[in-house]
Model the fold of this input.
Amino acid sequence: MDQLITNLGIGFGVALSIQNLLYCLLGVLLGTLIGVLPGIGPVATIAMLLPVTFTLSPISALIMLAGIYYGAQYGGSTTAILVNLPGESSSVVTCLDGYQMARQGRAGAALGMAAIASFIAGTFATLVIALFAPPLAEVALKFGPSEYFSLMVLGLIAAVVLAHGSLIKAIAMVILGLLLGLVGTDVNSGVARFNFGISELSDGIGFVSVAMGVFGFAEIIGNLEQKGEREVFVKRVANLLPTLQDFKDCAGTIVRGTLLGSALGILPGGGALLSSFAAYTLEKKVSKNSANFGKGAIQGVAAPESANNAGAQTSFIPLLTLGIPSNPVMALMIGAMMIQGIAPGPQVMTERPQLFWGMIASMWVGNLMLVVLNLPLIGMWIKLLTVPYRLLYPAIVLFMCVGVYSLQNSPFDVLQTAMFGIVGYIFVKLECEPAPLILGFILGPLMEENLRRAMLLSRGNPMTFVERPISAAMLGISVFLLLIIVAPTVRKKREEAFVED
Done:
């Protein structure tokens, strides 16, 4: 416990410096802004803003990007409650009861409960990270190449299992991501491969180009097709503090949502989206007020909002301890770390304690900022919702092109991003979720490197992956997951998991 307090002291010393406070504030404000604007999620935003962070110190860059992620969870609930449009995918469930509360004149109570539930969940999730990340990093330091390869296989398979939509399409997207990751120069031989004679591809396909194209450009092209108008019938929100009865009704809900979200956030492929759906479903089953769900039950707001914020933050545990992304946002964070020259993995905690603990402490600071700032700024967010799409998107596209070009001052990068934007739009039309692709793209080169290293150390004996207990256990879990999702009943349940009546 003394060590934990010392470590948190180091973290708060870093997080409370003027520079990092400003970047944390900028991150949570941008995250909220993006969450409020329907159609632009945190994945697209972080992909767009990656070039901006290159000139920052590593800790400031990661604090800002993390702030964007959990700030978007707050902002998404504002749009979901006021306009019945989820600003962020994990806020889909909040629409069900939040919008009904707004129509009943209780928009203030719904927004207030969403903010308070998110803050409580965020505070608890920060403690979970502080408690569980160090021992997990200690275990991970004992991992060899075999264990890392098996862990990445498990991560990709779990991402496929938890990806909503067609199982075949999810597997295809992972394989495509792995293949794209192979483009470039072979690490061992130094020979260029799969670059089709294009010199710009000698170092591989740009991570920022793939992320920005598949998530950013594709998202914008898709949104331009939506002709529907947004109905903002709430001109002014009053009574932001929920009643005492509301707090009594939601106390157990927030606890359950926080615990469930914290657990699911750690899973590969989990995070905020899965947590919010699971928490709402659980609350609907255990609540005495289940008949009122979908008609304006305040528990229907508290459950997903506490779960998605807890899930968003605990998804940093696999990233900070194992260097494994549990969702596409964490894949982008790994990309940001690599660009900053940081090798993601358990050694981050021992070699860069200021970065590790500073980032954890900044999450609590960011959550406090969100509660203090967001509720008074509700009026501004309402005005922002009335801005037409046609004015927003040209400015965003221009900003993205400038950001991509600034990476290497190369027009080829902009062209590459545009190509991936078209590919991403085709994925949207074919209902192929791009998240498994980005996970495969990030993990592909790491998997290849660890596979080769393991085979070299074992002198070409593939049995090394099953002879080492931890590696064998992870491969066993991977096989088990593949077998259970093939079962018809499990497959049917999986397809229904992300659908709410």
User: Anything to note?
Assistant: The chain has a mean pLDDT of 81. Residues 107-140 form the longest helix (34 residues).
